[in-house]
Amino acid sequence: MVTGQSQYFSGHKVTSVSYQGSWHSSDGTSGDWGLVNNQQQVFTTCKQILDAGASTGDGIYEIVDDNNEPMSVYCDMTSHGGGWTLVGS
């Protein structure tokens, strides 16, 4: 943030574990934000994240593999009902 610049954030609760909103700056820039409290939840697929109401839209999420090891994946939460996990090698 630049000295003299001000920012404000507005948002709302979407589900019991997620919040979303927008931010605005005095320099004219703005954007959207999302916050999910999923510390108690462990997911193995993007569909599980979506069904739990923990989705903040398309993007990178952390899931665990079959060995309970965490991994970052891209989740498409909007196409054809959402919950799609992009896997690459």
Automatic annotation (TrEMBL):
SUPFAM superfamilies: Fibrinogen C-terminal domain-like. Gene3D superfamilies: Gamma Fibrinogen, chain A, domain 1. It comes from Pseudoalteromonas luteoviolacea NCIMB 1942. Pfam families: Fibrinogen_C (PF00147). NCBIfam families: GGGWT_bact. Transmembrane segments: none annotated. The keyword Translocase does not apply. One of its GO terms (molecular function) is metal ion binding. This is Fibrinogen C-terminal domain-containing protein. The keyword Metal-binding applies. Keywords: Calcium, Disulfide bond, Lectin, Metal-binding. InterPro entries: Fibrinogen-like_C (IPR036056), Fibrinogen_a/b/g_C_1 (IPR014716), Fibrinogen_a/b/g_C_dom (IPR002181). GO terms for cellular component: extracellular space. Residues 37-89 form the Fibrinogen C-terminal domain.
